[in-house]
Design a protein that fits this description.
Rossmann fold; D-lactate dehydrogenase (NAD+) activity; alpha/beta; D-isomer_DH_CS; 34% helix; 331 residues; Hydroxyacid dehydrogenase; D-LDH-like
């Protein structure tokens, strides 16, 4: 059987091809799965997708009509998949339940340190042989307060690094993590965390309950000189409200690896096109904002684990086995 993989990055392709070697043939495409590209999958019983592939009603119906019966999502998040529709169509959907939490946690800290110490601005200056320090002053994080929204595996890894910096630890989650408690984290209400934290980092999944977790009111509750980092899901932050706060001169720095309207933009080369998204276009103009294109997970370790789990999900499906990765079981 040949598996069709959509949205495959150049660095990811050899990992996927090696992982499936000896099991099944895999055809990798760099295009993302959309209503326009879904007909390409005709005749492929199994399709693999990435987090920015849209699997809404129309796409799923096209896939089902073309013979696709299994979708192997190469990500932990699955808010891009209409699971009830997939179930009605008799399609099995599996995801990667977990991968290296250090990849995302370490990158979140990369963003935090980059905006705090003005690394991008400094690098741009030195390329022009401008070696002044004006405007590059940062702050020690040692002794300051970090607020971690979401203390699952990634949030815990982020917290361990914060503990190494010698920071005061505040956490918010529906369930407390014993390991974070042991590190000295105090769990508080979200409002208290936002009001006291010098650095706020988001590590929660995107669900209806967490959509715009940081809305206009929550952003206003943060310190004027706080640092905000989001390496989880773009929809957790009301970006229009964030832009409004930045226009008021608030926040020492904002590091975003995700954006709520990133589908159709991130992972693609848009450098020769006019960007119609006015919010994103304005966001990237702020000197204290750093935007990267959903690369926090993108390490050899994490991608290798993602690909390995994807292969196991496919083999489990063909063998009639079910694991914790299955979101919609085989009918």
């Amino acid at each position: 059987m040949e598996i069709l993989a959509f949205g495959v990055q150049a660095d990811e392709r050899p990992l996927i091809e090696r992982a499936f070697a000896g099991h099944h043939d895999v055809h990798c495409l760099d295009v993302f799965l959309t209503e326009d590209t879904a007909p390409i999958a005709r005749g492929h019983g199994i399709v693999s997708t990435s987090v920015n592939c849209g699997l809404g009603d129309g796409v799923l119906r096209t896939l089902a009509a073309g013979g696709t019966r299994m979708i192997a999502q190469r990500s932990t998040g699955f808010n891009n998949v209409d699971l009830p529709v997939a179930e009605r169509l008799g399609m099995t959907v599996a995801r990667v339940s977990s991968y290296s939490p250090y990849s995302v946690a370490e990158f979140a800290w990369t963003l935090a340190m980059a905006v705090n110490r003005r690394v991008v601005r400094a690098s741009t200056r030195t390329r022009d042989f401008d070696f002044r320090l004006d405007g590059l002053m940062g702050r020690d994080l040692h002794g300051r307060t970090v607020g971690v929204l979401g203390t699952g595996k990634i949030g815990e890894a982020f917290t361990r690094i914060a503990h190494g910096f010698g920071m005061r630890l505040l956490g918010w989650d529906v369930a407390e993590d014993p390991a974070c408690r042991d590190l000295g984290m105090a769990y508080v209400a979200k409002e208290e965390l936002l009001a006291e934290a010098d650095l706020v980092s988001l590590h929660v999944p995107l669900m209806p309950e967490t959509q715009h977790l940081l809305d206009a009111a929550a952003l206003k509750a943060m310190k004027d000189d706080a640092i905000l980092v989001n390496s989880s899901r773009g929809g957790l932050v009301d970006t229009a409200a964030l832009v409004a706060e930045l226009r008021e001169g608030r926040f020492t720095g904002v590091g975003l690896d995700v954006y709520e309207a990133e589908a159709g933009l991130f992972f693609l080369d848009k450098s020769l096109e006019a960007i119609a998204d006015d919010t994103l276009a304005r966001l990237v103009t702020f000197p204290n904002v750093l935007v990267t294109s959903h690369q926090a997970y993108y390490t050899e370790d994490a991608v290798g684990q993602i690909v390995g789990t994807t292969v196991r999900n496919v083999l489990d499906y063909l063998a009639g086995r079910r694991s914790e990765n299955v979101l919609v079981p085989r009918s």
